[in-house]
Amino acid sequence: MNKLFDIFRLDANKAIEMASKPDAFFVHDFEELIIGNQGKLEHFINFRLHSIEAPLVSFIAKGKAHKIAVGLQNGNFDMWVLRFKSEFIAETIFQLYTSFHNQSDQILQTGACFNRLSTICEIIYQEMQHPAADLSTVKHLLSALFIMIEAERKKVLPDDQQIRTIQNET
């Protein structure tokens, strides 16, 4: 990927096209965040197979070998794919690796917060359509997405499965 950031939306037609191609392992030189409103993912990452249905969030770290298969959910498929270089949000990349370590795929609850994730993706997409997109705005919106995802994860994961983060107060 030559750009610092890219975003696109996958619909049912694209999912059917992807499903018709043979599965192959990928190793990217970028980070990838998938926000799924509708659809299914079968994801082979970290030597484990995960099958999840939307609403979902999936984060694939740069350099991780993975294989992905997509499927329709009740005849529908709607997912946002955000790809970015590590240096685009360098100040938070370590936190992302910690948050998603061994938990690349997350099923979230439907509702207002999850709907806002999709709305933020739409705002980011619209900004990226401008010839002179403001990447600082995109960067802040991407950070907001990860903050909201973390808040939603805390709602659905039991306390014993949440990753403890160390905070330093000075």
How does this structure look, described?
This protein is α+β, with helices and mostly antiparallel strands and 170 residues long. The protein has one domain: Sandwich (Jelly Rolls), CATH 2.60.120. It is 32% helix and 28% strand. The chain has 4 helices and 8 strands, in the order E-H-E-E-E-E-E-E-H-E-H-H. It has helices spanning 12-19, 93-100, 112-128, 135-156; strands at residues 5-11, 31-38, 40-45, 48-53, 56-60, 66-71, 78-84, 105-107. The strands form 2 sheets. A 5-stranded antiparallel β-sheet has the order 1-7-2-5-8. A 3-stranded antiparallel β-sheet has the order 4-3-6. The longest helix is centred in the C-terminal third of the chain and has 22 residues, at 135-156. The protein is globular, with a radius of gyration of 16 Å.
Summarize the structure.
With 170 residues, this protein is an alpha+beta fold. The chain has a single domain, classed as Sandwich (Jelly Rolls). Helices cover 32% and strands 28% of the residues.
Task: Name the descriptors.
globular, 5-stranded antiparallel β-sheet, 3-stranded antiparallel β-sheet, about 170 residues, disordered C terminus, 4 helices, Jelly Rolls
Structural class: alpha+beta
| N-to-C span | 39 Å
- Label the CATH architecture: Sandwich
Largest sheet: 5 strands, antiparallel
Strand order of the largest sheet: 1-7-2-5-8
Helix segment tally: 4
Low-confidence stretches: 162-170
- Give the helix level as a range of percent: 25-40%
CATH superfamily annotation: Regulatory protein AraC
Shape: globular
- The rounded Rg comes to 16 Å
Number of DSSP strands?
Answer: 8
Count structural domains: 1
Question: H/E series, N to C?
Answer: EHEEEEEEHEHH
The pLDDT mean sits at 83
Question: How big a fraction of the residues is strand?
Answer: 25-35%
Tell me, what is the CATH class? Mainly Beta
For this structure, the CATH topology is: Jelly Rolls
